[in-house]
Amino acid sequence: MQVNIIDHPLIQHKLTIMRKKETSSADFRKLLEEITMLMGYEATRDLPLEDVEIETPIQKTVGKRLTGKKIAIVPVLRAGFGMVQGLLDLIPSARIGVIGLYRDPETLKPVEYYCKLPNIENRSFIIVDPMLATGGSSVAAIQMLKDRGVKDIRLMCLVAAPEGVDTVNKAHPDVKIYTAAVDECLNEHGYIVPGLGDAGDRIFGTK
Ligand code: URA
After folding, report:
1. How far apart are CA 35 and CA 18, in angstroms?
2. What domain range is 157 assigned to?
3. What is the pLDDT of residue 18?
4. Which residues bind 5-phospho-alpha-D-ribose 1-diphosphate (predicted)?
5. What is the whole-number distance in angstroms between the Cα of residue 148 and the centre of ligand 1?
6. CATH of the domain at 98
7. 36 has catalytic annotation
8. Of 27, 152, 166, 198, which residue is the catalytic one?
């Protein structure tokens, strides 16, 4: 199983509060934003740097800056929206794409209903979706980007099921997965166990 579990103590502490059923939507949203920002450090750790000559008030020196590689954040509707602001806090110049998928009630396969992406030239794409459950929608979202020519794709979630990680690994071995936790399993309704329930409902306060 190829997955980067970001187990920083602050992330684990905040995730435990998110899992609690009595945590309010307002707190849930805020914590998701904070965790996403903290995870963003790791998910962008390998971004290339170049030397740049600058002048401090004391003397000339050589500093580092990000090379031309740009970032796009791509939430998968609707829960993925909850992870956008945390990454934007870290990378304010990032562009934002959006992917919409629904599950066909008969085939149970994800069906694309929306895709709007920024220019893909020289850009790394980070797909965000808090719950990596069966992996079906993540596999489809990654494929949607690849079909449009995107080469550098990362997948960031909050909680993953082992089944979902395996499914994404098999379909897209080139895509790095970042998560705060890999839980035990999926239940018969496709929920992650112990998980945190329906992330979309908890973010948007629905149900
Ligand atoms: N989606 C969710 O929101 N929660 C799960 O546990 C699984 C999929």
Report:
1. 10
2. 1-202
3. 98
4. 78, 103, 129-137, 198
5. 27
6. 3.40.50.2020
7. no
8. 198
67 in a structural domain: yes
To the query of whether residue 183 is one of the catalytic residues in this protein, the response is no
Those residues with Cβ within 8 angstroms of residue 106's Cβ, 6 or more apart along the chain or in another chain = none
Whole-number pLDDT of residue 29: 98
Per residue in 64-79, pLDDT (tens digit) is: 999 877 999 999 999 9
The reply to whether ipTM tops 0.90 is yes
What's the pTM value of the predicted model, to 2 decimals? 0.95
| Centroid of ligand 1 to alpha carbon of 131 (angstroms) | 5
Identify the pLDDT of residue 68.
77
Tell me, using a 6 A CB cutoff, whether residue 200 lines ligand 1. yes
Domain count, the chain: 1
Query: Any catalytic annotation for residue 23?
Result: no
**Top mutation candidate among 18, 196, 201, 202 for ligand 1, by most atoms within 8 Å of CB:** 196
Q: Flag whether 36 is in a domain.
A: yes
Question: Which residue from 34, 43, 41, 30 is spatially nearest to 12, judged by alpha carbons?
Answer: 34
Nearest CA to ligand 1 atom 3: 198
Q: Which two tokens stand for residue 8?
A: 């920083």
In a domain, 207, yes or no: no
Residue segments in the chain with a per-residue pLDDT below the cut of 70: none
